[in-house]
Structure formats: structure tokens, C-alpha cells
Amino acid sequence: MSDLVRSDLVRRALWAAGAVVLLALPFYLDRFWLQAGLFAIAAAIGAIGLNLLTGATGQLSMGHAFFLAVGAYGYCALAGDGTKAGGHELVGLGLPSWLAAVLAVALTGAVGGLFSPIAGRLRGAYLGIATLALIFIGQHVLFNATSLTGGFNGRSVEPLSLFGLTFDDTETVVAAVPFQSAEKLWYVALAALLACALFARGVLRGRPGRAMNAIRDHTIAAGVMGVPVARYRAAVFVLSSMYAGLAGVLLALVFQRTVPDYFGMVLSLEYLAMIVIGGLGSVAGAVVGAAFVSLLPQLLTRYSDALPLVSAPGTGGVSPGEASRYLYGAAVVLVVLFLPGGLLRITALTRLTPSKKEQA
């Protein structure tokens, strides 16, 4: 058996083992770890979309958090029943939650489409500054459109219902294990991540991906070769927005409440850190970077009592959130200086290292 066939079999076996482990986790992990995993999955979906735009096409976006907010609050408004909360009459159409989730993603794509003519004509820092304006506009709307967002206190999220199953905290016993919202959402989130990853991988490996890379590497040359540069930039921006919208819907379902403070500039910077740390232009790199950036603050919070220089939230000193930003900020610098391909580059370097037999 050749080394190539053997390595392929090992890779397939590892993928199969990983899939079995992921499917079995709700039966063994407590709620904290499942929620941390759900946050990482939602972040991975949003990071894949941003990597299509920034990593594969070379378009810098600072407004990713805005589109997450559109997806999250769009779902709340479409699925909510319009009840009062915090003295405000909230907008709610009362649609079936599965339909509200689909329409929220479509709404986010439509909002991205409204901005896409600008995205199609700008590049680099100019697009980054233009998308940064979306954050300020979004924060103003989220805090002041109280009938839609609930204002500072946010609004509760209608649980997802699919195939007659409601993904709330009502216990459903499966193999003697009580399944609540986190356990139920786990499989929906995994399915969404798999679908998003496979679609993005197909885009990157096909003709659109080659056109996107050509635009990233040399815009003028891509135009000379017949690539409609403005159209591709606009289309990828819409696609990236829809990925962010789906991530926002999933985050809302996990949080069970949406608050405006979460969808600020820091969140957009975190998504940029995800794709840089994991690997620009790679689906797997986006997933790895999202897991690193999203899990780090939760782990520091969980083990703050046992870690030096990190204090529990509200006790003074360096909070877990601040410590995590320092750490992944340092990780960005280290990746840019010493590992330009991101963490995913480590596995590529391992595969490319010649064996002793070949060296001889």
C-alpha cells in the first residue's frame, strides 16, 4: 500500500472518529460545555462567511457584527408574538420558527444586497471604513428602535420548532439522558455547520473560487481575463452576509435573549481575528480560528480561580474577557509574523515534510 493511500485512509478514519465523537458529546457533557460548543459552531459559520469575503476575495469587512445582529433580531421579530417587554410593545409576526429562521437569513442577504453596490466598487481599507459605518448605524438602531429590539434590555427569543420538536428547556429523555435546549440544538447546529462548510468548500474549489482568488491576488489581471470583478465582489458580500445572518440566528437561539451590546465593534474584530488565526481563505481555518477565539474567554471564565493574573468577573484585576483579548491579539501577531497561513498551516507543513526514506 502506497504512502498516499495509507495517509488517505488515516485521514478518513480520523474524520469518521471525529464525527462519532461530536454526535456523542450531548450524552456526556454538561450544559456549560455544550453551550460553549454551540457558541463555537455559530462563530465558525460566521467566520466561514467572512473568510469567503476577506480571505478568498481580499475584501476587508469591519461590519460583520451588523449582519449577525440583522439575523438575530430578524428572527426575533419574525418568530415573536408581539408581546410587551420592559414597557415596550414589541414587533412580532408570529411565524413558524423554522420559517422565521429561513426568512431571517434571507433578510440578512437582502440587507447585504443593499450594500453590495458599494462593496462591489470599494476594496481594502476603503471598504473596511465603509462597513465600519454599518456598526455605528446598527448600534443606533438597536438601542433606539425599542419596538423592534427591546432597547437596552434586548428581547427574548422564541425557541426553534422543527418536525414537531421544540428546542427549549423542556426535558426529553433519550437513552436515559435528559435532553434540554443545548442538547437538542447541538445536532441542528452541527447540521448547519456541515452544510455551510460543504457549500463554501464547493465554491472555493470551483470556478467561482478561482475567480475570487484572482480578484484577491490581482484585480486588474482578473478583469483582463474576463472576470466581472464588481459583480463577484457584490455577490460574495451578499453570501458572506447570509452566513453571518445564520450565525446570528443560531446565537440568538443559544443565548435565548438578544442584547444590543453584544453586536458591537469588538465582535467584528473577533471575527477578523478568527480568520487570521485559523488561516485566510480556508474553510477549515475559519472553523479552527472560530473555536480558538470563541472558546478562550469561556475557558478563562470557567477556570479563573485556578489561573494566575486572571480574576473572576466583577472582582477587579484582569477579567477573563480582557485576558482572552490579550491572548488572541498576541496570537494574531505571532501568526502574521511566523505562520502566515494560520494554525491550519501547521498540519500542511507536517504533510509536506519529507520522510526519512525520501530524504535518503
TrEMBL record:
Any one GO CC term of the record: plasma membrane
Q: How does it sit in the membrane?
A: Multi-pass membrane protein
Which compartment or compartments is the protein found in? Cell membrane
Please give the start and end residues of each transmembrane region.
12-29, 35-53, 65-83, 95-118, 125-143, 185-204, 234-255, 271-296, 326-348
InterPro entries given for it? Answer: ABC_transp_permease, LivM-like
Keyword hit for Cell membrane: yes
Keywords of the record = Cell membrane, Membrane, Transmembrane, Transmembrane helix
Assign the protein's first listed, main location to one coarse class. Answer: membrane
- Please list the GO terms describing molecular function: branched-chain amino acid transmembrane transporter activity
Give the highest taxon in the source lineage: Bacteria
* Pfam families given in the database record: BPD_transp_2 (PF02653)
Cite the PANTHER family for this sequence.
ABC TRANSPORTER PERMEASE PROTEIN, HIGH-AFFINITY BRANCHED-CHAIN AMINO ACID TRANSPORT SYSTEM PERMEASE
What protein name does the entry list? Branched-chain amino acid ABC transporter permease
Q: Which organism is this protein's natural source?
A: Streptomyces venezuelae
